Amino acid sequence: MPDAVLYSFRRCPYAMRARLALVVSGMICELREVRLSAKPEAMISASAKGTVPVLVLPTDTVIDQSIDIMRFALGQRDPERWLERDDNDLIARNDGAFKHHLDRYKYPERYDGNQQAHRDEGLMILRDLDDLLASSGQLSGNSRGLTDAAVFPFVRQFAAVDRAWFDTQDLPHLHTWLSGHLESRLFAAIMERAAPWTPGDAPVMLQGTEPDLL
Ligand SMILES: N[C@@H](CCC(=O)N[C@@H](CS)C(=O)NCC(=O)O)C(=O)O
């Protein structure tokens, strides 16, 4: 019996941060990959708001906010002491202003179309992160922590909109930080592909529960 079931979508940055914390915590999780266009009934009956990630515990307790999943998982076991590096203000700015500009930079056709203004606003936030990273290498200290895992999946998305442009930006510490996370074994583990889940499928486990993974 797994410690929990996680409804997830591979490319969703909120689901990525949840998977990162779950794998680091060593929780044994059944991974149910979701198609956002065809969400499973079991997920909707656990959490009617219909966003991923959703974590369901054997007691039927449901945690359906990515940050809460991270804090819960690390509250069970926190071998890298990520909870000591949890900066609520940085995460709130990421999930608020940065996500706002990221969406409008990435999908100008869905919003006001002023793509460059949103790219510039996002870049200002990245400059601030770059300054923070200059002194310590990670966002809340010298080693990776909850803040880094909560934020880098969104910076990854921003970088991918126009990689050539992003690579020419003067953000030396941020570039090093982002590549370090993207090249980590932990990230490779949480980005393993899984077919969309349907009821009755044999359980697929979230990778990374092998002791030598990290
Ligand atoms: N506040 C939520 C946001 C999660 C979220 O918005 N996830 C997106 C995917 S990245 C989603 O499920 N959207 C629903 C949809 O596209 O139908 C959290 O932190 O978990």
Give a structural overview.
Helix 1 runs parallel beside helix 3 (66-76), helix 1 (13-25) runs antiparallel to helix 6 and helix 5 crosses helix 8. This protein starts with a strand and ends in a 24-residue tail after the last helix. The chain is 51% helix and 7% strand. It is globular and about 50 Å long. A four-stranded mixed β-sheet has the order 2-1-3-4. The protein is built from nine helices and four strands. The chain has a domain at 84-184: Glutathione S-transferase Yfyf (Class Pi), Chain A, domain 2, CATH 1.20.1050.10. With 214 residues, the protein is an alpha+beta fold. It has helices at 13-25, 41-46, 66-76, 88-106, 115-136, 146-161, 163-167, 172-182, 185-190; strands spanning 4-8, 29-33, 54-56, 62-63. Strand 3 and strand 4 (62-63) form a beta hairpin. The model has no long low-confidence stretch (mean pLDDT 96).
Which tags fit this structure?
binds glutathione, four-stranded mixed sheet, alpha+beta, 214 residues, Glutathione S-transferase Yfyf (Class Pi), Chain A, domain 2, 51% helix, globular, 9 helices
In short:
With 214 residues, the chain is of the alpha+beta class.
Measured on Cα atoms, how large is the radius of gyration?
Answer: 17 Å
- The CATH topology name of the domain at 84-184 reads Glutathione S-transferase Yfyf (Class Pi), Chain A, domain 2
User: Mean pLDDT, as a whole number?
Assistant: 96
Estimate the strand proportion.
5-15%
Strand order of the largest sheet: 2-1-3-4
* Bound ligands, named by name, code or SMILES: glutathione
Q: Give the proportion of residues in helices.
A: 40-55%
Strand/helix succession: EHEHEEHHHHHHH
- CATH class type of the domain at 84-184: Mainly Alpha
What profile does the largest beta sheet have? 4 strands, mixed
